[in-house]
Amino acid sequence: MSIFKVKQWWSNDKSEGVEFNEGLNNGTCFKVDKFNVHSDSDCLIVGEANILKIYKPNRDHDASHSLMEIDLGVTILQIETGKFIVDSTDRYILVLHPQSYAIYQLYRKEGHIVAGEQNILQPAVKHSFTRKAHSVTCGPFGNIKTRDFICIQALDGSLSFFDQKTFLFLFIFDDVIIPGPICYVANSDSFVICKSTWVIEIHSYQQLREFSELNARQNKKNIPQWMYNAGEEISSVQVIQTSSNMSSVIALGERHLCCFQDNGLMKYTIKFDFMPMCFSAYLIGWYYEPTARLLVMVASEDSKLYIYEGTTLLWSCNLLHQAIAISRCFLKYLPGGLATLSASGVICVSYLGTEPDLNANTPSMVNDNIDPEQVQTELEMVEETLQKVLDGNEDADSQYPSVEQIIKIKADVGKPVQNLFEQFAKDTDEALYLLMCPVVVILTCEDPNSIHSVQITYDCCPPFTCSDTILCLDTVNGTEIIETQVFVSTESDISNSRVKISFTVTDLKGKINVLTREVVLPLSLYCSPAEEVFDNEFKLLVETNQSVVDITEIFTDFTKEELLKHGRSHDITFVYRATKKTVTVKAIDKQYSIEANDITDITSVLLNLITRLNEHNARKNLNDFRFNVTIDVEMAKQITHRFLKSIEGHAKERNKLNSLEEELRVLQRQFTLIQKKLLVQYGALPPGDCDPLEFLLKDTQQRLIKCVHEIINCRNTTRKAGNRLAAIGQLLVFIFRKKIKDDFKVKLIEEMLTLGTLYDDYQDWEEAVTQALTYILNNVFQKSEKDKEKLAPVTEQGILSHINLKRFLKQIRVLLDKLFVEARGEKDVENRVTRIEEFVEVI
Question: Per-residue pLDDT tens for 466-490?
């Protein structure tokens, strides 16, 4: 990193804030330096895959921080800056690629006006080499102060030296298995090399040059000037000049930070009680001043920043993200800034005050005197404006038509078509035939110039999956027809066959409007007619105020021939395509009967039946159509029992998954430790006995592979258990919505169950329900003394623990009993609540 004259970061004022925050995708490396064309402020050079980006942060948050972006066409491994060209005072940019490097000059081409200025990256040198590169270090090797030379470390640990595009010499280490950090000490003209044997060595440049020639002729061994066994892997090393004739070498290990003089004398070492991720050392003052101070800032794995002077901790604060690279920067209006690069590719420039707060979402604050009455007046104006927005009475927008008037939306589903999907099992040649249902959206815009963009988001419940989750339209010209496909992705129960489509419309004024539409997937997508089944364990009756309609007229996505092939017009059996389970629909007098051997199979067909009945009666202009669900005491007990069993099964699978993931973490740490010890054994002279470690490494690898496969299978099982839980939960919500008159209470129950949160990758349902369940039981329902005994408070252990899950199931049982009693219109009798052990096994 470049060393500049700096001031202290902490002062007597309380100014803290952020000047720059830029999101990157897969940001790989970055460098901070100053150039002649931008001498008033540092520039941030970022390598992102093949793209090189250069930023110049400034105080104006409305202005762009970006100077330029260029696609180099080759992966960027590392970025360095220096004086690589003879007779040039400017600093150049060196970009390292896997088998080449390029040197660029950044210059600015002025236009007739300020906005016409262009930043251009002019290639100066391009050179290729044969060995695949790992890293690069630069400096005035050989004490030649006119320019910087280039040292490239290959993947085999060898060092190749270059002057511009001229190859100088190659040095090969015989005890390096994998490359490590390397750094150049300009003060002593030597290199700090961290080997895979956890040893730090110092080799002079002249020594490397001489022995590279001797190795070719006499095979002599190079002896380092000094060495240090760190006892752990060194992740990074930095050299900083601290006096006129001395430099400091700082090395960061897994748990320690060591500081040496360049002659090998250790100055101090720090043992951390956290896992360090990266560090950066800097001076306060000039190196030739006796009062100069060496400070080291370290970023930890838990997103914290620590600043040390020697072994003394001067400062600590929280970072906004986990930093994988950190550096200091000097902006025009910010003498000392902190630049960090996160693992997710976000580079952020912040600064510290007396109350350190690296808040990347707020501009810097000035300690001006503020009138409290003025602040209160502004707050009242903002509240009044927001209230107008909420009420839809904005005076400013009254002259403009609403988004609903500009855009007309029509959403519908098409007929499912058959597609072939190969099974992932390698030992079979079987193929699973699934259907894909097209969901068609027609957007009609009367005034395309009034719309900036439209984003369409599709949301469906598992096991349904959309081929396109999000679609973006920059313009809507006249009528746009958008089609996406929905299909069944896994063999599990179906809880909801609706697809919710959200339209996020941004107008030219920047106002965002969200419109929603909902379509019902046809029954033919996931069911097909089958042979009639007469004996079913569960039966749910739906009574209507109209005469029943032939089933062939309700499920119109099937032809009459398909429905009557195996059954009658008032008695049809369907089979689920994925699970092969059956459900029978019967039409008798003024009621419909949905029968199945499992309660989960009733939900999707029941909801589809109700939707189709409403559509059929709407076509017949029968607006007074009403229906009701018949639930007796025995049916309520069965549904409650199955719901509790589904929760128990879901919790068991989650516990198993958590234990497997913990086992995987242990195996990963064990595998890494064995690797490191094996590298030390390989690099020892003479090499040690590696057979036991190799056996452990192979055994750990096999256990890792087996554990990963078990996790994949367990995740699939957990998702199926979550779909089963959601299916019964949707049935409960449907029943309570029809049987309980208090709509607010039903809404609370529906929000408490949060069945929509059971996504494929998110199964923490029990934790989400616990708090809401306790609130509803304590505030919505009246508790008796016996209820207070049963509803003991949850302990501090996790909700999936044995005792907490048992209490959670008991609370669910009490709640469902109260709701079913209210649904049947009966009084809540104490003896109606039976012990949960009668229905649910204790884990």
Answer: 888 888 888 777 788 999 999 888 8
